[in-house]
Design brief:
Strand order of the largest sheet of chain A: 5-6-7-3-8-9
CATH topology of the largest domain in chain A: Rossmann fold
Distance between the termini of chain A: 37 Å
Largest sheet of chain A: 6 strands, mixed
CATH architecture of the largest domain in chain A: 3-Layer(aba) Sandwich
Number of domains of chain A: 2
Helix content of chain A: 25-40%
Order of helices and strands of chain A: EEEHEHEHHHEHEHEEHEHEEHEH
CATH class of the largest domain in chain A: Alpha Beta
Shape of chain A: globular
Strand content of chain A: 25-35%
Largest sheet of chain B: none
Order of helices and strands of chain B: HHHHHHHHHHHHHHHHH
Radius of gyration of chain B: 23 Å
Number of helices of chain B: 17
Structural class of chain B: mainly alpha
CATH superfamily of the largest domain in chain A: P-loop containing nucleotide triphosphate hydrolases
Radius of gyration of chain A: 21 Å
Oligomer: heterodimer
Distance between the termini of chain B: 28 Å
């Protein structure tokens, strides 16, 4: 396995605020990494550092390049969608394709046109005339036509209705992801990408709370539904987080085997959303 | 590198349609004005007749040439003023609008450096706008001469002789092309300053660009009782080193003009050597370079999205 992104002790300060605080991680080729964090956790700052849009302290290598110093070279092999609103509103679809073709060495126009032909996006329309969902389709059709090694998506489906959101992710998997490419994605709608991620990372207050493969998540984390005496026994095993659910206690355990919890209640692997809450609240406690 | 610049400048023309719409509107207004003038002049039949008879029989080649050159130059000035205003607004908008609309994030997701982007905006201001203006000026001149020749023809004059054979069009066009390309170089400190303000300001670029031009000289005079900044700005406007100094003896020597009508030349009045050896021109280019470098730096390091 080769790692596409290697971060070692990366920090980014805005005045006194440490938006990203001494973070280290790796992203390997062919992975779909989900990055989650509450608002202001440092997600966007971290993505910007990876994309070379902001400078940072520490060592950060993306595709073997220094992202801030070698942004041009980097962008030949990376694409990103930051928010659907960023496509310029005055540009025509055909002009956008012309421009991409002229400036991006890894862009295949016919591929983009093929993807657009499946949508209602007309070539002579201006971006400002398109609905938000259509703008996202347009952006994705451009991104998917770039033979890039890493795709970075920052809240790509923000403000879209459920149909466009579902379609976005299914198109992403069918048109873009082929096991060779790598995706780094952030979203608030965790449940929508839970099934397509291979790896997961939580970030809170600029620090990484969790960095795991989805496969090993069930071995490490267990959620137990329990009550009464069993709850007291379970509590002695040191849950990282506890909450009330319909009069029962839901406890989240880290590194406690499902066997140890047997007989204390109903146990299962927590959903990513629940695990996220447990980790963030547990870290705050 | 060059292919990227071409694509980037083309991109500017897509975004800022005013770059060709404005000169076209100026041309239209001028053509309408000329038409109105001729319709108005038709009411004074006798004077027109006398004028044409005089131009045909009494005036010399040099006089006819000079009169038509004055017509063409007069019809060029509005383009230069409009071009100056257009360039100012274009520069102030060019690096500000993309931040305001957040499309800067999209542009920066492409394999194009900040330097390439800022340079493309400068090239648009310094080369694309003048070339478009020049093309429209040539078209406007042709239409105006055509209208003039039709008018002269209707009034019974020989338009071939009075207009087309007398008008020094290629001399004037060559001169205008040189002037439109040299003017942005001479005024490049302003272009650089406007680009910098556009990249840097958080709001109202127009105000932020012009306020310092007023405040700084005022402040300097209050505090130091000097006016160096004011002089530097003023020099840009009254010491344009493009034209030869007028030699009164030659200029008012009527016999010379009568002998050689070709001496009536706008091109002959231009002195490129003087321009290229002007220390003020080079000082301006250096100042422009500093502002453009600052604009690149701000676009690269500014992080307010």
């Amino acid at each position: 396995m080769t790692s596409l992104v290697t971060a070692t002790n990366v920090s980014k300060r805005y005045g006194d605020v440490r938006a990203v605080d001494n973070v280290s991680f790796e992203i390997e080729k062919g992975k779909i990494m989900g990055l989650f964090g509450p608002n202001g956790a440092g997600k966007t700052t971290l993505l910007k550092a990876v994309l070379g849009l902001t400078d940072c302290e520490g060592q950060l290598s993306v595709l073997g390049l220094d992202p801030f110093k070698q942004r041009k070279e980097l962008m030949q092999n990376i694409c990103f969608i930051a928010d659907v609103a960023v496509l310029p509103r005055w540009i025509k679809v055909s002009q956008l394709l012309d421009f991409m073709e002229a400036t991006h060495p890894n862009f295949t126009r016919s591929r983009s046109e093929e993807l657009l032909s499946r949508t209602k996006v007309r070539k002579n329309a201006k971006v400002r005339e398109l609905s938000k969902g259509m703008v996202t389709q347009l952006h994705l059709s451009i991104i998917a036509a770039i033979d890039a090694k890493l795709l970075v998506l920052d809240e790509p489906t923000l403000g879209l209705d459920i149909i466009f959101r579902k379609e976005f992710y299914s198109n992403l998997l069918s048109d873009y992801f082929d096991g060779e490419r790598t995706i780094l994605i952030t979203t608030h709608q965790v449940e929508e990408i839970e099934h397509l991620m291979t790896d997961i990372m939580f970030i809170h207050d600029g620090r990484i709370l969790l960095d795991s493969s989805m496969d090993t998540l069930p071995d490490t984390y267990t959620e137990l539904m329990t009550s009464g005496e069993n709850a007291d026994k379970a509590r002695q095993l040191g849950p990282i987080y506890e909450r009330d659910v319909f009069g029962k206690k839901a406890m989240t355990f880290e590194g406690v085997s499902k066997k140890q919890l047997e007989g204390l209640g109903e146990s299962h692997t927590p959903s990513v959303a629940d695990l996220f809450v447990a980790k963030v609240k547990g870290a705050a406690a | 590198m060059i292919a990227n610049q071409l694509a980037l400048v083309r991109r500017e023309l897509w975004e800022h349609r005013s770059l060709y719409v404005t000169p076209a509107v100026v041309a239209l207004v001028m053509i309408l004005a000329i038409l109105t003038a001729f319709v108005f002049a038709s009411g004074y039949q006798e004077i027109v007749d006398i004028g044409i008879v005089g131009a045909q029989n009494l005036a010399g080649d040099a006089e006819r040439r000079a009169a038509l050159m004055a017509l063409l130059i007069g019809n060029t000035m509005p383009f230069l003023f409009a071009g100056a205003i257009l360039t100012t607004f274009y520069c102030l908008d060019s690096l500000y609008a993309e931040r305001k609309s957040k499309s800067i994030l999209f542009w920066r997701s492409l394999p194009i450096t900040d330097a390439e982007t800022v340079v493309s905006k400068f090239l648009t201001a310094a080369i694309a706008i003048p070339l478009i203006a020049f093309a429209v000026i040539v078209i406007a001149h042709l239409v105006i001469l055509l209208i003039t020749s039709i008018f002269v023809g209707i009034e019974g004059g020989s338009s071939m002789f009075l207009v087309w054979k007398s008008a020094p069009i290629f001399d004037v066009w060559a001169a205008i092309l040189i002037i439109t390309l040299l003017l942005p170089v001479w005024f490049s400190p302003f272009i650089g300053w406007f680009l910098f303000v556009s990249a840097w300001t958080k709001r109202s670029p127009l105000l932020m660009a012009f306020l310092p031009l007023v405040l700084l000289p005022t402040l300097e005079y209050w505090v130091l009782r000097t006016h160096l900044i004011f002089d530097a700005i003023k020099t840009r406007f009254d010491h344009l080193p493009i034209f030869k100094g007028i030699d009164p003896e030659l200029f008012f020597n009527e016999e010379r003009f009568i002998a050689e009508a070709d001496a009536v030349s706008l091109l002959g009045f231009i002195d490129i050597g003087k321009f290229l050896t002007s220390p003020q021109m080079w000082a301006g280019v250096i100042v422009a370079g500093l502002f453009i470098t600052a604009a690149i730096y701000v676009r690269r390091y500014r992080d307010d999205t």
